[in-house]
């Protein structure tokens, strides 16, 4: 890519954290991942943690590309393996603020077991899951997060499987901070990102993000998918995780909010205190 | 016997796989998407959804699960299929040995791709070469038609009671998986199904006659059980040739275990595999016009290794140049096929020189000119009597 890309003025405050030389991104026009990236970088700036101490780890997928666009220490690891990689970093250098950013398929599909056990042990890392309800990077196949009935390239007449609800899974497994927003809820997203940096323990922030492939497979425009999110998302205080199931084309609202925020000693605290005696 | 009616379709190798799997009336497919394999599974999903193939498709959550599910299905007698590439094949590795150890006739296709790290979605054969010792029969095709035909043959080979080993059919990721070619597919798949009849040739789980698959084998028996796989590979060698010949008689196309191109009077032989052979053939024609006595050999069967045919074909030649698209790191001869060829030739009394060349890593383009230049280099080495006993890394910016 020879022509130099200039960021719009609205990016001035985070320009130093973006690897402008790697733009344009691989994301399709209208994709929500850029909003997550932008908000995350703003949150990093607003965190009381030195930028140099932030580390981004991602697995494979469209969302996983985030690690390649940040001017921070970042790691692009294997599909599904971002969490164990992040745990390794945190254990070796506990002073670092380690954030995983990856797709729904990456984290709760192929990497699901890591997610469960990292939550169980309450590892002091942050996990941002960009949930586009599909395997985006490989061209739109059914994922464990694809809502029942949705069409994908591998379910041409609709998915018959029940989808995973990320907040419910995270809480059941032992996560101590769990929130869900959509890319239309930037302020809330920002708050949750700042909270997850401060939180001592396994913090999960799920961001619902419209995917152009998901829309086209289901016979709607991408903007209509944004519209569905705008219409159906309902912010609830103290939401019930049992109500967190996503029914994208039905009448049930999509519940957003902070599902849990509790304190429990993190694995790192326990390890380091037992070593120090 | 019904005559086969062919339909000429524009298909890439991924779609050729899907048509073959459909025509073989597979029962269970379990797969996970990965570039450049993905469209195989998408096409099969379409066939199933449209009722053109009566099969179960399991959308598993990883390749480890994909092969595990195929193993489970094969263990109860289903005809199974899966497909993958690169990291997916690596993630399956543990299960590769389970499938062959349990002697289950699973068929899998590989759209070959370079391995991480660094991440590359492009073609080379490092993924396939890493499976060398997993006791899978491994065919490498070089055209979409051959892919279609090989998948059909693969079921016949795998399910033959003398064999009962899983079979991989590999082809170049992108270069073949995404390139359209005219392919003849059967309009009346019954004919294909006749060629791969349903026979219950392998031990399956059956509630009426309970058995255990895969229990512990202690030092007193483990070795003998593994030796049976050695014997099965030897048997497979015959069966693969038989099946290919019968396929030829029945359908008019056969490939052999190696393909020869203008080698009868050649002094120099270029040996390679997969889609690259097309370029090699073109390069040979061009060099022949310039009076260079060069011919080509294509390895279609990688495991079991077609030792006799190879020895026969290189006998009396002056130089064999092996073009490998994978690296065995730390080996002096780092091209996997070159290494295999040299050990196979060890006991030949008069043997040609061998030049091992690595090309096309991470899909670095290999042109006809590259082939011509490599050949010229080989000839120079030969003339100066100094063919190096180590691999040449063609075109690398070292
Ligand atoms: C072991 C392995 N299997 C398959 C793939 C192919 N692959 C790359 S990204 C991806 C899915 C991406 O979906 P998701 O994680 O939801 O992220 P998105 O692209 O939607 O952001 C897959 C299956 C891979 N890279 N590695």
UniProtKB/TrEMBL annotation, chain B:
Domain Pyruvate flavodoxin/ferredoxin oxidoreductase pyrimidine binding: 20-244
Quaternary structure note: Heterodimer composed of an alpha and a beta subunit.
CDD domains for this protein: TPP_PYR_PFOR_IOR-alpha_like
Keyword ATP-binding: no
Keywords assigned by UniProt, alphabetized: Oxidoreductase
Catalytic reactions of this protein: a 2-oxocarboxylate + 2 oxidized [2Fe-2S]-[ferredoxin] + CoA = an acyl-CoA + 2 reduced [2Fe-2S]-[ferredoxin] + CO2 + H(+)
GO biological process, one term: response to oxidative stress
InterPro entries attached to this UniProt entry: PFOR_II, Pyruvate:ferred/Flavod_OxRd, Pyrv_Fd/Flavodoxin_OxRdtase_N, THDP-binding, Transketo_C/PFOR_II
Listed Pfam families: PFOR_II, POR_N
Ranges for domain Pyruvate:ferredoxin oxidoreductase core: 266-371
Record EC number: 1.2.7.11
GO molecular-function terms, A-Z: 2-oxobutyrate synthase activity; pyruvate synthase activity
Protein name in the entry: 2-oxoacid oxidoreductase (ferredoxin)
EC category: oxidoreductase
């Amino acid at each position: 890519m020879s022509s130099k890309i200039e960021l719009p003025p609205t990016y001035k405050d985070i320009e130093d954290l973006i690897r402008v030389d790697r733009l344009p991104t691989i994301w399709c026009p209208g994709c929500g991942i850029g909003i997550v990236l932008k908000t995350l970088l703003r949150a990093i700036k607003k965190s009381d943690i030195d930028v140099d101490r932030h580390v981004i780890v991602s697995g494979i997928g469209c969302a996983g590309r985030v690690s390649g666009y940040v001017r921070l220490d970042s790691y692009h690891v294997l599909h599904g393996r971002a969490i164990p990689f992040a745990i390794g970093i945190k254990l070796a250098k506990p002073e670092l603020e380690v954030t995983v950013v990856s797709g729904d398929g990456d984290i709760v599909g192929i990497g699901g077991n890591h997610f469960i056990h990292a939550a169980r042990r309450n590892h002091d890392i942050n996990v941002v899951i960009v949930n586009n309800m599909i395997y985006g990077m490989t061209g739109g196949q059914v994922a464990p997060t694809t809502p029942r009935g949705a069409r994908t390239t591998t379910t041409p007449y609709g998915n018959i499987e029940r989808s995973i609800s990320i907040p419910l899974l995270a809480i059941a497994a032992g996560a101590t901070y769990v929130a869900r927003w959509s890319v239309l809820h930037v302020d809330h997203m920002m708050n949750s990102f700042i909270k997850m940096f401060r939180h001592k323990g396994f913090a999960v922030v799920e961001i619902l993000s419209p995917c152009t492939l998901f829309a086209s497979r289901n016979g709607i425009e991408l903007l209509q998918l944004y519209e569905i999110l705008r219409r159906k998302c309902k912010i609830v205080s103290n939401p019930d995780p049992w109500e967190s199931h996503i029914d994208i084309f039905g009448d049930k609202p999509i519940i957003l909010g902070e599902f849990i925020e509790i304190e429990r000693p993190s694995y790192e605290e326990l390890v380091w205190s037992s070593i120090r005696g | 016997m019904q005559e086969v009616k062919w339909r000429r379709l524009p298909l890439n190798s991924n779609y050729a796989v899907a048509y073959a799997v459909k025509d073989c009336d597979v029962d269970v497919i379990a797969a996970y998407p990965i570039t450049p394999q993905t469209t195989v599974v998408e096409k099969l999903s379409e066939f199933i959804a449209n009722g053109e193939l009566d099969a179960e498709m399991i959308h598993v959550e990883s390749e480890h699960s994909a092969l595990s599910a195929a193993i489970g299905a094969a263990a109860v007698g289903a005809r199974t299929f899966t497909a993958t590439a690169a990291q997916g094949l690596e993630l399956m590795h543990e299960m590769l040995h389970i499938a062959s150890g349990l002697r289950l006739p699973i068929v899998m296709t590989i759209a070959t791709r370079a391995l991480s790290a660094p991440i590359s979605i492009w073609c080379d054969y490092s993924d396939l070469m890493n499976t060398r010792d997993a006791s899978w029969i491994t065919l490498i095709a070089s055209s979409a038609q051959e892919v279609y035909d090989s998948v059909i043959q693969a079921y016949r080979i795998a399910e033959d009671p003398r064999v009962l080993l899983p079979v991989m059919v590999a082809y170049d990721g992108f270069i073949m998986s995404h390139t359209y070619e005219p392919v003849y597919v059967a309009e009346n798949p019954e004919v294909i199904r006749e060629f791969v009849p349903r026979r219950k040739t392998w031990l399956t789980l059956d509630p009426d006659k309970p058995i255990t698959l895969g229990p512990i084998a202690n030092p007193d028996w483990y070795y003998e059980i593994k030796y049976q796989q050695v014997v099965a590979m030897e048997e497979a060698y015959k069966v693969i040739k038989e099946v290919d010949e019968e396929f030829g008689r029945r359908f008019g196309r056969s490939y052999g275990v190696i393909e020869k191109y203008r080698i009868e009077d050649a002094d120099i032989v270029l040996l390679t595999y997969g889609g690259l052979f097309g370029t090699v053939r073109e390069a040979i024609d061009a060099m022949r016009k310039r009076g260079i006595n060069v011919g080509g050999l294509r390895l279609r069967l990688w495991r079991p290794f077609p030792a006799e045919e190879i020895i026969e074909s290189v006998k009396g030649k002056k130089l064999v140049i092996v073009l490998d698209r994978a690296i065995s790191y730390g080996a002096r001869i780092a091209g996997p096929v070159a290494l295999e060829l040299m050990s196979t030739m060890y006991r030949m009394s008069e043997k040609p020189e061998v030049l091992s060349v690595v090309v096309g890593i991470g899909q670095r383009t290999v042109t006809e000119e590259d082939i011509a230049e490599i050949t010229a280099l080989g000839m120079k080495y030969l003339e100066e009597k100094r063919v190096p006993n180590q691999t040449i890394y063609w075109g690398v910016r070292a």
